[in-house]
Design goal:
Length: 83
C-alpha cells in the first residue's frame, strides 16, 4: 500500500503517513524518512514493517503504532507532539 510521509520528527523518529483510508503513525527503527516521500509497504498491520521509498534504493524499518487515524485524530496527535 502506498502512502505519503506528511510529518517526520528526526529526534523522536516518529512519522505520520497519509494513505488511502486514513493516516498511519509509527516509529522509524532503521533508515530515514523525508517529508513528501512516497513509500510502499504494509501500513495497516500493527508491528514492524519494511517500507520502500519510491525512487530510492533504500528501505526503512517502520513500526506501525496505529493505523486508520482520521484527519482530526492525526491533527490532535501532532498537537500533543509539538507542545
Amino acid at each position: 500500500m502506498p502512502g505519503t510521509v506528511i510529518w517526520f520528527h528526526p529526534e523522536l523518529r516518529v512519522a505520520l503517513i497519509e494513505r488511502v483510508g486514513g493516516f498511519t503513525v509509527g516509529t522509524v527503527e532503521e533508515g530515514q524518512l523525508t517529508i513528501g516521500a512516497v513509500v510502499v509497504g504494509n501500513l495497516t498491520t500493527p508491528g514492524p514493517s519494511v517500507l520502500k521509498p519510491v525512487g530510492s534504493e533504500g528501505q526503512v524499518v517502520f513500526n506501525v503504532e496505529a493505523d486508520a487515524l482520521t484527519e482530526d485524530q492525526a491533527n490532535e496527535l501532532l498537537g500533543f507532539i509539538r507542545d
